[in-house]
Design goal:
With 211 residues, the protein is mainly alpha-helical. It has one domain. It contains 7 helices and no strands. Helix 1 packs antiparallel against helix 4. The longest helix has 37 residues. Belongs to the cation diffusion facilitator (CDF) transporter (TC 2.A.4) family. SLC30A subfamily. Keywords: Membrane, Transmembrane, Transmembrane helix, Zinc. Its main location: membrane. It is a multi-pass membrane protein.
């Protein structure tokens, strides 16, 4: 199996698991009006779009007809990673804005569904991290998906903690704090991915071809 084909298989597996997680988070988030779950679902939606674009770019690279086209499509993969970073920053800004508005009128939210979905998110992201750990060291887009998995797992742990706090002590601000933490993690992973992508885009043709 070629490295490109292995990459495509990994991305398809991750895509399937993240579709399940997205449906769970957005469904329960809309029902419970949980900011932290909606923030997480927004992050995952961006991941789904980027995974689709990455799979398309990987397919074009694998079926290139010449070195010139291969170089062009490899640059496309880098552009996909850069766009992903920018979209994540935009999502984080929206989360910050919604969080500030909800601070003025906090609401009691069902905490048990939040806890269950957060547990599912930790399990799925843990599986993603395990699948991508080795290959993320030498592929830009796999590294981006790997970093998102780490950020998602950390944000899911914060959602679990906030759900427990709301359930045990009815501290309504806990969900808001968790959503701010999620947004901060999104910004961190987005900036890291964008800067790495930009640096690679500026490098010589030979260095880009080794990605």
């Amino acid at each position: 199996m070629t490295q490109r084909r292995k990459k495509s298989q990994l991305l398809w597996i991750v895509l399937g698991m993240r579709i399940i997680l997205f449906l769970a988070e957005i469904g329960v988030g809309l029902w419970s009006r949980s900011l932290s779950l909606l923030a997480g679902s927004g992050h995952i939606f961006s991941d789904l779009v980027t995974l689709g674009l990455t799979l398309l770019a990987a397919y074009l690279v694998e079926h290139r007809t010449g070195n010139k086209e291969g170089f062009k499509y490899q640059r496309l993969e880098i552009w996909v990673a850069m766009v992903n970073g920018l979209s994540l920053i935009a999502i984080a800004c929206l989360i910050f804005w919604e969080t500030v508005t909800h601070l003025q009128a906090p609401e009691l939210k069902p905490s048990l569904p939040m806890l269950l979905v957060a547990g599912l998110s930790v399990a799925i992201n843990g599986a993603n991290i395990h699948l991508l750990r080795n290959d993320s060291h030498h592929d830009l887009n796999l590294r981006g998906v790997f970093l998102h998995g780490i950020a998602d797992a950390a944000s899911s742990l914060s959602m679990m903690l906030s759900a427990l706090v709301v359930y045990c002590w009815h501290w309504l601000w806990a969900d808001t704090v968790a959503s701010l933490f999620v947004a901060s993690l999104i910004v961190w992973s987005a900036l890291s991915l964008f800067l790495n992508s930009f640096n690679l885009l500026m490098e010589k043709t030979k260095e880009i071809a080794l990605i």
